[in-house]
Amino acid sequence: MGIEVVVDGLTKSFGKQNIWQDVTLTLPAGEVSVMLGPSGTGKTVFLKSIIGLLKPERGRVLINGVDMVNSSERDIYETRKLFGLMFQDGALFGSMSLFDNIAFPLREHTRKKESEIRRIVMERMDMVGLVGAEEKLPGEISGGMRKRAGLARALVLDPQIILCDEPDSGLDPVRTAYLSQLLIDLNAQIDATMLIVTHNLDIAATVPDNMGMLFRRNLVTFGPREVLLTSEEPVVAQFLSGRREGPIGMSEEKDAATLAMEQRALGSAAAAGPRPLVPQLEPSPGLPERRAVQRRRRRVLAMMDRLPEAARTAIARSYAPAGGGVPR
Ligand SMILES: Nc1ncnc2c1ncn2[C@@H]1O[C@H](COP(=O)(O)OP(=O)(O)OP(=O)(O)O)[C@@H](O)[C@H]1O
């Protein structure tokens, strides 16, 4: 099963530029979480801080008792082996075949025999639908295939925590839908804790168990998906509806006068509210149930009385027995 990641009071700056402050959240073990946020709000910096590649000046990131901010480099290095990382562009070596790219972490970090490496690589290539493309070079395949290859490479060391940085960037809507399904299928197969950074509203609406959003150097919220998806907080509602009207501007923030003018111009359209909730994706037929589902259900039902009413209603509806009644 995946491992819980506890982020506690994390603050990161570059020189005088504060990126975000006092970020506190827990990625529940084996569940899928998404971090949203406008461009430049520090989502990638957040991922790099979790694996200890960047050093926040305050706070902790606890994984199995190791603090990825303050523990010794040796402990951080060891703990990093629990991670699988999928970068925006797949980060593949251009002169290596897909097979060799995916085999790379195994050859670097383990002493496995070539026959064992071949077995693992082929298994992972099968999981992401790349069998038959072993000898292709990254430059000879589509962006979607490169992403899947990056994902296969992230999986070869059996990670317990998977971080995906904008897995949808550069993909068309159909490929993005396939990728969303692939992420859920992976979670069903390996039960790893997953954090996906994305701008993509379809991924946000259909993939995660939990969702958060970074804006104006703060974590706006983090919790069960229904909290964000039913939120009427202006910044969240604007982001989720993809509107120009709202606190998020081209250069991130707007002034109060512009906002007031927009509100007047928008009138009742602004009161349209969040878009309807769609059900979370389920694993493809033939795959096991996601083990996270039952754990999450217990966790979320135990926190119901602390959640906003709209989220409570949405959760109760999603957990209601088919014939109606109250969720248990
Ligand atoms: N190593 C670095 N040194 C200095 N500034 C940095 C460094 N890395 C990132 N930044 C700054 O941190 C801010 C946040 O960058 P980051 O890439 O995390 O944003 P993001 O939310 O992932 O954006 P996008 O969605 O556009 O990818 C940016 O202003 C960026 O210039």
Number of helices: 12
Shape, per Cα inertia axes:
globular
Largest sheet: 6 strands, mixed
Strand order in space, largest sheet: 6-7-8-3-9-10
Q: What is the average per-residue confidence, as pLDDT, rounded to a whole number?
A: 86
What's the gyration radius in Å? 21 Å
N→C terminal distance:
24 Å
Structural class: alpha/beta
What is the CATH topology classification name of the domain at 5-82 and 159-231? Rossmann fold
Protein name: ATP-binding cassette domain-containing protein
Keywords: ATP-binding, Nucleotide-binding
General description of the model:
Helix 3 (98-109) crosses helix 4. A hairpin with a 2-residue loop joins strand 4 and strand 5. The chain is built from twelve helices and twelve strands. The longest helix is centred in the middle third of the chain and has 18 residues, at 173-190. By secondary structure, it is of the alpha/beta class. Helix content is 38%, strand content 20%. The mean pLDDT is 86. The protein has a six-stranded mixed sheet. It has helices at residues 43-50, 73-80, 98-109, 114-127, 143-155, 173-190, 201-206, 225-229, 234-241, 256-266, 292-302, 309-319; strands spanning 5-14, 17-27, 32-36, 58-63, 66-67, 83-86, 161-165, 193-197, 210-215, 218-224, 248-249, 252-253. The chain has a domain at 5-82 and 159-231: P-loop containing nucleotide triphosphate hydrolases (Rossmann fold, 3-Layer(aba) Sandwich), CATH 3.40.50.300. 39% of the residues are buried. The chain binds adenosine-5'-triphosphate (ATP). Adenosine-5'-triphosphate (ATP) is lined by residues 14, 19, 37, 39-45. This is ATP-binding cassette domain-containing protein. Keywords: ATP-binding, Nucleotide-binding.
